[in-house]
Amino acid sequence: MIETRDLVHRYGDEAALDGVSTRIDDGEFVVLAGPNGSGKTTLVRHFNGLLEPDSGTVEVDETDVFADLVAARTEVGMVFQTPRDCFVAATVAADVAFGPENLGLPRADIDRRVEAALAAVELDGYGERRIDRLSGGERARVAIAGALAMEPSHLVLDEPFTGLDWPARESVLDRLEALHDAGTSVVVVTHDLRDVVSLADRIAVMSAGRVVRTGTPDAVLPDLDDRGVRRP
Ligand code: ADP
Ligand code: MG
């Protein structure tokens, strides 16, 4: 479970998060929607301690993120916007291994995790391929595999469909559905709800640094017209 209470984040004088209390349950599939600048990226970067609250708290499994940063970073896997900028190695397996290597795991465990993570995104056998030769959709799935290699209980993806063509988008959606079915909680940040909403247990809508609406897709979608969110 990820839980924020009265979370405030300021950049200079501007409050990008203005008192956010929200909760992601284990196994839940949540779409975090809202217009550009509403605070979505800032919020999810608090989920694993990439940002520090100005006030309020963030807990992962009932432990404050900064009381155990390694646990938070292990339990909450993060896939960033524009994955092409965030690969650390030239080949697929080396990149996916990076997180588990930093945990100091034995080589055999690392290799097992890399294999399992690549299988989960249907890139079995891609380990030695060069990332710069992959398609956009394949790269997006490598980025997801990198997060999965940490064996997180929550997977958070910030605008994972940006720059992907339709088949690539479908392949990522398909993998997210399978991960959710296998018990991982999935948080997808997006301003474009096409297709992803059919997978969601819940939509949370942000506006001006607050979560202004949360509920099932059926309950929330009719209210979205004026919130700058592209409806399906
Ligand atoms: P979203 O992901 O919903 O587009 P962000 O969390 O990126 O929203 O941004 C929320 C607000 O914080 C916006 O007004 C944005 O301009 C501002 N902001 C985001 N990142 C920074 C930063 N690094 N420095 C200053 N202001 C920022
Ligand atoms: Mg953003």
Looking at this protein, list some descriptive labels:
binds adenosine-5'-diphosphate, four-stranded antiparallel beta sheet, binds magnesium ion, Rossmann fold, 31% helix, single chain, alpha/beta, six-stranded mixed beta sheet
Short summary:
With 232 residues, this protein is α/β, with parallel strands linked by helices. The protein contains seven helices and ten strands.
Explained architecture:
With 232 residues, the chain is α/β, with parallel strands linked by helices. The protein has one domain (2-223): Rossmann fold. The chain is built from seven helices and ten strands. The chain has helices spanning 40-46, 69-75, 92-102, 107-120, 136-148, 166-181, 217-220; strands spanning 2-11, 14-24, 29-33, 55-60, 63-64, 76-79, 154-158, 185-189, 202-207, 210-215. The protein has a six-stranded mixed sheet with strand order 6-7-8-3-9-10, with helices on both faces. A four-stranded antiparallel sheet has the order 2-1-4-5, with helices on one face. A hairpin with a 2-residue loop joins strand 1 and strand 2. Helix 3 crosses helix 4 (107-120), helix 3 packs parallel to helix 5 (136-148) and helix 4 (107-120) packs across helix 5 (136-148). The longest helix has 16 residues, at 166-181. The two termini are 28 Å apart. The mean pLDDT is 92. Adenosine-5'-diphosphate (ADP) is lined by residues 11, 16, 34, 36-42.
User: How is the biggest beta sheet arranged?
Assistant: 6 strands, mixed
Which ligands, by name, code or SMILES, are bound? adenosine-5'-diphosphate, magnesium ion
Instruction: Point out poorly predicted stretches.
Output: none
Count every beta strand, where a strand is a DSSP E run of 2 or more residues.
10
H-E string: EEEHEEHEHHHEHEEEH
Count of separate DSSP helical elements: 7
CATH architecture: 3-Layer(aba) Sandwich
- Quickly name the level 1 CATH class: Alpha Beta
| Radius of gyration over C-alpha positions, nearest whole angstrom | 17 Å
